């Protein structure tokens, strides 16, 4: 069942979030806000569909225990966040504030998706939603030349953009939990990889985990 979980959640999420997301967008009071929110929704669904092939590929993955159930934790928090966005109360915001937040959501989606997809393409078949042993030699180009976990940062930016659309208290709490579970996943993965000499040498040179830090020479 754990092997199938990411694929099942992705397919269900595409269907549910697409349907409920459209209803939420149409409930927004201003035309410009609906346009920006609709743009975000379309981009988010495209991103999820693009990554669904990875979820399907991982059905045959054998590295379940290294992950320590952190993927399941992330999925649960993501479902809570999505529920808070599509079913939680729509805050009564000034028109200018609402439009600024909707515009910010699109910018965060564009930045996060670009970073995440670039990281995934750099790793190729070495990328996995689950924490697992890396494919050697280690990828050190693209965003991995600056930070060690760009895909996590990209996902956090995307979902921060989602919370900007409907910034109710439930969405903000769920977003904080989302950042927290991704921080846990990053730590679990980094500690596992530090057992490998190539990664340990890489982490000594590329010190930034989510944000760039000066390289050691």
Overview features:
single chain, 217 residues, mainly alpha, Four Helix Bundle (Hemerythrin (Met), subunit A), 7 helices, globular
Description of the molecule:
- The model has no long low-confidence stretch (mean pLDDT 89).
- The longest helix has 29 residues, at 95-123.
- The protein has a single domain (5-205), classed as Four Helix Bundle (Hemerythrin (Met), subunit A) (Up-down Bundle), CATH 1.20.120.1630.
- Helix content is 67%, strand content 0%.
- The protein is an all-alpha fold and 217 residues long.
Produce a short descriptive summary.
This protein has 217 residues and is mostly helical.
**Tally of extended strands?**
0
Distance between the termini: 46 Å
CATH topology: Four Helix Bundle (Hemerythrin (Met), subunit A)
What structural class do you assign from the helix and strand content? mainly alpha
Uncertain ranges: none
Order of helices and strands: HHHHHHH
Number of domains: 1
Helix content: 55-70%
**Any idea what the radius of gyration is?**
18 Å
Task: Provide the β-strand percentage band.
Answer: under 5%
Which of globular, elongated, flat, extended, rod-shaped describes the shape? globular
CATH class: Mainly Alpha
The averaged pLDDT comes out at 89
- How many H/I helices? 7
Main β sheet profile = none
Please identify, by name, the CATH architecture. Up-down Bundle
